[in-house]
Amino acid sequence: MYENFAYIYDKLINDVNYMAWSDYIERIFLWLDTKPKLILDLGCGTGSFCIEMSKRGYQMIGVDLSADMLACARNKSLLSNVDVLFLNQDIVDFELYGTVDAIVCLLDSINYITNKHDLKKLFKLVQNYLNPGGIFIFDINSQYKFERILGDNVFYEIDDEVSYIWRNSYNKRNKICEFDLTFFVKEEELYRKFDEIHYERCYSSDELEKIIVNVGLDVVGIFDDLKMEKPKKSSKRIFFVCKKPCSQHY
Length: 250
Prior knowledge:
250 residues, alpha/beta, Rossmann fold, N-terminal domain of TfIIb, seven-stranded mixed beta sheet, four-stranded antiparallel beta sheet, 7 helices, 11 strands
């Protein structure tokens, strides 16, 4: 996944305002009256969030399975003159040398984990590598978005440098959405065509909350997209804010 996609990823998600996302994460920190220093970004992609947060004074670690994504991230961090530690690891099986103050998993990376056993494994690792009182923030594409916007729909964009056709199919029974992507990327006077197939799984807030609590984390907030308000039925993106208890009783 992402072998070819990595190098045009930023062009295709240029509508993502990483400054606004970073503002929102800092707003959550302020709401919780916490000041994390070391933050782990799971599924960091080409590193845009890590770089923005590094510029704001945080120590950042980015983890991603795609070496191509991380190559882009490393180049961008050098150009931005920031020091970010990037690790080429699977987020459902990541390993650190120590604990961190906060962990984020953004841009519906959680939905890409289609196996619930793997998701439980990820949440257990998050719990393990968070300092007591540490914060875990992630977002998901909502059921509304899968059923009403993404599922069984076709999107396309025609551009001089990169054009694409994005065909989706959503299976309500197993809650899996298949993204069939065809790209045309300009190389000198010709265009190179390549295909990618991605999968995301729809998770309900209830099943996620149950898994989170079972691994020993507290759910302290569930919010609408980049807001501090409860999600609506028509919310497209939902944020979860979790906290590791300062002390645990057995």
